[in-house]
Structures are given as C-alpha cells and as structure tokens.
C-alpha cells in the first residue's frame, strides 16, 4: 500500500513539473509563464519530496529533516519569487498579452496617484 502512495506522489509531482514545462513553452506572455512555472514547479517538487520522505520513513525508518525543510522552503519561496519577478516585469512596463481583459495593478496605481 505504501508503494502505491509513493508512486501516486511521484506521478503527481512529475505531472505538475511536466505541465509547468509545457505551460512555459505555450503561454503567451511573461505573467502567465511565471504562473505556470511557479505553481506547477512548487506542487511538482513538493510532491516528489513528499514521496521521498514517505519512502525513507517506511523503508528505512528515517525521518529526514532535510526533506521537510526542503518542502517548506519550496512552498514558501517559489510563489513569493514568482510574484516579485512578475511585479518587477510590470514595473518595467513589460506588456500584457494582447487579449488580457484588465490590469488591476495598473488601475490601482492610477487610483492611488489620483488621490495624492
């Protein structure tokens, strides 16, 4: 049963990493590519690390603190770094995709500038 659970986590992690890679290649602009890269990579790496943790625990009786720290680190840093990179792209006037409907960050900045 444990082997099935480990296999499921490995397959889910691999699926998310593969779908993120395809998203990076297929999506039209920087912002959607960053979304694919950060969300999918975070879930993919976390899934593989969870599978490794479960394997080590049930096969060898080892509770790996390094794997737990790795999972926490990836879950905390990848979304924040993706947000900061997209914010930097927006601040340097990288264009949105031509079919984007709205730019809420731009409208918020304009509203704040009008208040001042």
From TrEMBL:
Name this polypeptide is given: Na+/H+ antiporter subunit G
This protein's UniProt keywords: Antiport, Membrane, Transmembrane, Transmembrane helix, Transport
One of the record's GO molecular function terms: sodium:proton antiporter activity
Location (main, coarse): membrane
UniProt key word Transport: yes
Membrane topology listed for this record: Multi-pass membrane protein
The family this protein is said to belong to: Belongs to the CPA3 antiporters (TC 2.A.63) subunit G family.
Pfam families: PhaG_MnhG_YufB
GO-annotated cellular components: membrane
InterPro entries noted in UniProt: PhaG_MnhG_YufB
NCBIfam families according to UniProt: CPA3_mnhG_phaG, PRK12674.1-2
Transmembrane stretches, start-end: 6-28, 40-58, 64-82
Cellular localization per UniProt: Membrane
